[in-house]
Amino acid sequence: MIMIIALLAGLVFGAGLILSGMVNPAIVLAFLDVAGNWDSSLLWVMGGAVTIGSIAFALAKRRKVSFLGVPMQMPTTTKIDKRLLLGSFLFGIGWGIAGICPGPALVLAGSGETEIFVFLAAMLLGMGIFEIAEKKHR
Asked: Of the candidates 58, 120, 135, 136, which lies 20 to 30 Å from 52 by C-alpha distance?
């Protein structure tokens, strides 16, 4: 049952990315171009996501188990450190160059376009480098 709910949640998330335009790199890059022809439409998408996410996290903090009976695993770290700032910086640079972030990249993989697979390969390489660096950090 949990797998079916996870699949449905993923499909709803993907549909939301498509409907909001988050999978269109041109719209994303126009949103990031605050000094040029700025497109504010994604501001509303992000605002809605942050609002819904904030409410969901506030409700989740009060629960010991999810609605499906799975133990809640809430983040415990609240520290803003160099690693978080560097990761955020690198994510932002990648998003600004490509106009794509990981969720939309997976949705765009269904398009079969070669460019998205180059992006996914670079994303997986970055994740691999992170894992190697994490092992050395411990």
From this structure: 120
CB 104 within 8 A of CB 22: yes
Query: Left (φ > 0), alpha (ψ -120 to 50) or beta: where does 104 sit?
Result: alpha
Region for residue 85 given its phi and psi (left: phi exceeds 0; alpha: psi -120 to 50; beta: otherwise): alpha
Question: pTM for this one?
Answer: 0.73
Three-class SS state of 79: coil
Report which of 81, 70, 20 is spatially closest to residue 45, judged by C-alpha positions: 20
C-alpha closest to that of 32 among 46, 14, 18, 19: 46
For residues 101 and 28, what is the distance between their CA atoms, to the nearest angstrom? 10
Q: Give the H/E segment covering residue 48.
A: helix 41-61
Q: Whole-angstrom Cα distance, residue 137 to residue 116?
A: 31
